[in-house]
Design a protein that fits this description.
With about 300 residues, the chain is of the alpha+beta class. Helices cover about 15% and strands about 30% of the residues. Strand 13 and strand 14 form a beta hairpin. About 35% of the residues are buried.
């Protein structure tokens, strides 16, 4: 069964030059010293106020550091890093070396992946780099990988699904794992803790200083998060303009839906991510609806694979 799909919502930025890795080490939340040709990193760029500007996957391509980010974010990242790049021997450029990005699943698509990687290295953010493509094992336990293709010729016979439902299933898997990616509308809106980046492995608290680190570390070691990203399930379809009503005690709050996936097969529940209040009182959740009926939501606890990884 073919599960490979084309992922069109990504952009790339390259950081090149003799100071590339050292420069990024002082700017991002992940420990760039752990980056190598076989290991990618998930990280974020934050503002001086400790707000998340962008998230990314970072891969070492030869001597170049390549960041994969969401559509509309490459220019934002470039402009942000350019303010600090004048002090280092680096160049920042919007990357065009990758022609396509495919999403695949180990096991189901393994025979195709092995054509360019040989024996596939399985594991959290392991990657394979060669002249044709870069293959990155994504965070999570569902065996998904991204294939960043730079030479399309070896991949012309790869069966790629054009079913839009497949792309929805890919997005749904991110949501069910509690993975939220930053687009231009979310940039600088939230702290890493609120987005669970301290739980999902995007922040490395053992590394040195980076922009926003002092505020982020203070919130981590001295403060308690009052809000957190949460996963909610619904038997009803989620609409673009709906919000989440959280009720606890005599209090009622309304929060935005940051990402959602409606089920297409009529069997599974729709899933969504929203930032909710943390309270010691029992909460109930529902979708805000213009009509009188109330769409009850089920709260689903999140568990991140990176929390069990010894770093």
């Amino acid at each position: 069964m073919v599960t490979m799909i084309e992922l069109r919502d990504y952009e790339f930025l390259s950081v090149t030059g003799p100071d590339a890795a050292a420069f990024l080490q002082g700017q991002v939340t992940c420990d760039v010293e752990k980056l190598n040709k076989n290991k990618a990193l998930a990280g974020a760029i934050c503002s001086l106020r400790g707000r998340v500007i962008a998230d990314f996957l970072l891969v070492l391509d030869g001597e170049d550091c390549v960041l994969r980010t969401q559509r509309g974010m490459a220019e934002i990242i470039k402009n942000t890093l350019s303010k600090y790049a004048i002090f280092s021997k680096v160049e920042l450029s919007i990357e065009t070396r990758f022609r396509r990005v495919l999403g695949a699943a180990l096991g189901e698509d393994e025979k195709f992946l092995s054509k360019i990687t040989g024996q596939i290295a399985k594991g959290y953010l392991n990657c394979h780099v060669n002249a044709e493509a870069i293959v990155v094992n994504l965070p999570g336990d569902d065996g998904r990988v991204e294939v960043w293709i730079r030479d399309e010729k070896p991949f012309r016979d790869w069966p790629v699904s054009q079913d839009t439902n497949k792309l929805g299933e890919w997005t749904r898997k991110d949501i069910l794992q509690g993975l939220i990616h930053i687009n231009p509308l979310l940039s600088e809106e939230h702290t890493p803790q609120v987005l669970n980046y301290d739980l999902s492995g995007i922040i490395d608290f053992s590394k040195g200083c980076y922009t926003g680190q002092e505020i982020i570390a203070r919130m981590h070691y001295r403060g308690n998060a009052k809000k957190r990203l949460a996963l909610l399930l619904s038997k009803n379809s989620v609409q673009e303009d709906q919000g989440i009503v959280q009720r606890y005690g005599e209090k009622e709050t309304l929060s935005k839906v940051l990402a959602y996936s409606n089920c297409s097969n009529g069997i599974e529940n729709s899933a969504l991510l929203s930032i909710l209040d943390i309270t010691d009182k029992q909460s109930t959740f529902s979708l805000s609806c213009p009509k009188d009926e109330e769409c009850i939501l089920k709260f689903e606890p999140l568990s991140y694979p990176s929390q069990s990884i010894v770093k």
